[in-house]
Structure formats: structure tokens, C-alpha cells
Amino acid sequence: MPGSGANKTHAVVEGGSIFIQKLNSSLWAEANEKKILLGQLISMYSELLKTIFKNKRSKHVKDIIAALEVYKTHYSDGMKKAEELLQLAKLPMNDAKIELKAIMELRTVLLEMNKEEVRRKRRSRAQNPRGRPNLSG
What global pTM score does this model have? Predict the structure, then answer.
């Protein structure tokens, strides 16, 4: 029967992981980036458990929700960063006022990008000072 809960469950199970693939993705490799992702996942799990167990919450479920809430406060800075990214993505880039401001800020943004690139190259050289392949794994 189309649209039944069993078919939806089967589709999710067959389709692979929902969150694990994101955690293992190279897009979220750096610790700060992963912290943003984990903050979002923690928030989603907290809401999920609160919704599923709206009326009947065993002590075990209450403990998990409480732990997630503690983690949420620990990862809240990551959530703030994610929210800023979402706000940036929603900017109407065809708005004349935003276009003008963006063009006025372009030089500063490019200078910041250059600083980050120099830092990244320095870290790379510091980890591998003589250009030898890093075989430590």
C-alpha cells in the first residue's frame, strides 16, 4: 500500500545512513566543522526524542534527553555558526543595496581569505617541514 509507514521505514533502511554518512564525510573533517555538525545532530535528536516520547518517557529516555540538552549547551556555539551560515545563504544577492555592500566589502573578504591561506600553508609546512611524505597515517 503506497505511503504506508512500513514502506517509508523500508526505504530509509535501504537508503543507508542519515547522519553517519555526514559525520564520515570529508566536508566535516576539521574539529570546528565537525562541532557545528554535531551541534545540529544533537539538537535534532533531542527534538526527535521529545516528539516520539511525548507522553511516555521512561527514566532511560529522560536521561538521554537530559544528556542531549547538556551537549546542546556545549555545542551551542556551533549552532550559532550554522545559523549564521543559513542567514548568509538567504541573503537576496540580487538586491541593489546588498550588492553594493558586498562589493564594498569584497577587498576585506579577499584579504581575510589570503590570511587564512597563508596560515593553512604554514601549518602544512610545520607538519611536513622537509617536503617528505607524511607516512604516520
Answer: 0.58
